[in-house]
Prior knowledge:
This protein is an alpha/beta fold. 41% of the residues lie in helices and 16% in strands. It is built from six helices and six strands, in the order E-H-E-H-E-H-E-H-E-E-H-H.
Amino acid sequence: MSKPKIAVIIGSTRPTRFGEIPAKWILDQANARGDMDAEIVDLRDFDLPLFDEAASNLWAPSKNEKAVAWQKKIGEFDGYIFIVAEYNHSITGALKNALDQAYVEWNQKAFGIVGYGGVGGARAAEHLRGIGIELQMASTRSAVHIAGGDFMKVHPGFGGSGNLGDIEGSIGGSAKAMLDELIWWTKATKAARG
Length: 194
């Protein structure tokens, strides 16, 4: 079996977002393992319209070319790591819209989460897990949560370093656990789909 392909999806599109920093960090962690091939998938690169199809692509093919391009891209992967900003106790509107723009491409695949914000994106992560279940996905139990003082220490917008290596002692163990679970679930779901 070839190495699973993992998309690291940056779930915020704001010009001042923090998401690129944890995305690059977890990408390096994932690729350093040697048991998966990960790449960043940035929602900014797809300019998705608000979901306005007749139905989910489970029931009817999407007509919007941008939605179809998104579906093709995410369909290339065996699993996902979502970089999750918490907005008002949930995921970003951009990420919810991107999840809604596809259905069959997410099915029977695994995902992990790197969350950030006041409580490390924990409430957003729980919402994402519920959405994932509806999309017939398997979530890892472990997740990376960048919260509180650690968040302020590394967020450049608050005078932080922009270097997640500065807090690796806090988040390195959870990253390893999430990636260990993600590779197990990804291999299992890939074999079952085959």
